[in-house]
Design brief:
The chain is an alpha+beta fold and 291 residues long. It has helices at 13-21, 49-59, 71-75, 77-85, 184-192, 202-205, 217-228, and strands at 3-7, 37-45, 97-105, 115-127, 130-141, 144-156, 174-180, 238-243, 251-257, 266-272, 278-285.
Length: 291
């Protein structure tokens, strides 16, 4: 039977992170662990104008009067964290790895839209690389489904049990290039509420096995979307991303993308400007063309 949580509004993220840092649950599922299902709902979800503007600035997204495709993820973060810290979820949140993200837009959301959130967290398969989980979030506006996100993440196995990285891929045309300053993680944390220490400073990231702080995955996604989207995002838009390699900060990246298909879909890669190794690979479909 699923555990069901309900919130009148998304919880405050700052207080939740303090709890997460002192969490002492295991890093992996214990042998014989059964299926995990945790559901949650929240109402009265709305972007605050100042925070939205700051997010658009950090992610280089246009202010077009609509919520960016990636922004409901930010609004749902407090609910997500409460689900991951619930006593029925058996693994500690800090140390888990975001491996994939899919976002679908069913109807455009204005910057002032009021939404209700419905979320479902469930366990997936255990593989040599670790234990997989999936978190599906739906945003409803006026009772209608407007936006859906599926986050896949991993409680990783020890490094010695993981597969060796693949070689650098052949890449399509270059469509963008930018530097990633060392303070990018802290700037994004201020606008997103994601204060995971691996993104903030080298001294905080080293205990988790990183030589320096790494960029937030959803910041990378938003920056790519800002370069790929041509005008406001319309109904039917879909973004599908797989995270492949952490982006160490400071860094320098290049965005490569195939030409649009007959339906406007583009496959893209964000890679290191130094060695061409990919940080993420994705597919972008802009959805319906407005009349």
């Amino acid at each position: 039977m699923a555990t069901r949580l309900s919130f009148p509004a998304p919880p405050s993220i700052a207080a939740i992170y303090l709890r997460a840092l002192f969490d002492r649950r295991p890093r992996r599922l214990q042998p014989g662990a059964g299926p995990i299902v945790i559901e949650a709902e929240a109402g009265a979800v709305q972007a605050e104008a100042g925070r939205l503007a700051a997010y658009q600035d950090v992610c280089q997204l246009p202010d077009d009067g609509r919520l960016p495709l990636t922004y409901p993820h930010i609004l749902a973060a407090g609910v997500h964290m409460e689900m991951l810290l619930h006593r029925h979820f058996p693994i500690r949140m800090v140390g888990m790895v975001h491996i994939a993200n899919e976002i679908e837009l069913f109807k455009p959301l204005s910057a002032e839209a009021r939404m209700a959130l419905d979320c479902r967290l469930e366990s997936g398969r255990t593989k040599p690389r670790g234990d997989e989980f999936r978190l599906v979030t739906e945003a409803l506006c006026n009772g209608e489904l407007a936006w859906r996100e599926t986050v896949s993440f991993l409680a990783p196995a020890p490094a010695r049990e993981r597969r060796a990285p693949a070689a650098a891929p052949e890449l399509p045309a270059l469509v963008g290039e930018w530097a990633v300053p060392a303070d990018t993680g802290r700037r994004y944390a201020w606008v997103s509420g994601d204060w995971n220490p691996i993104h903030l400073a080298a001294m905080l990231a080293r205990p988790f096995g990183f030589p320096s702080a790494i960029a937030h995955g959803m910041w990378m996604v938003a920056r790519c979307l800002g370069r790929l989207a041509d005008g406001p995002v319309e109904s039917g838009a879909r973004l599908d991303v797989r995270f492949l390699k952490p982006l160490l900060m400071p860094g320098h990246v290049r965005l490569h993308a195939e030409p649009p298909s007959d339906v406007g879909e583009r496959v893209f890669w964000l890679v290191s400007a130094v060695d061409g190794m990919p940080h993420l690979k994705g597919t972008w479909n802009p959805g319906a063309t407005p009349d």
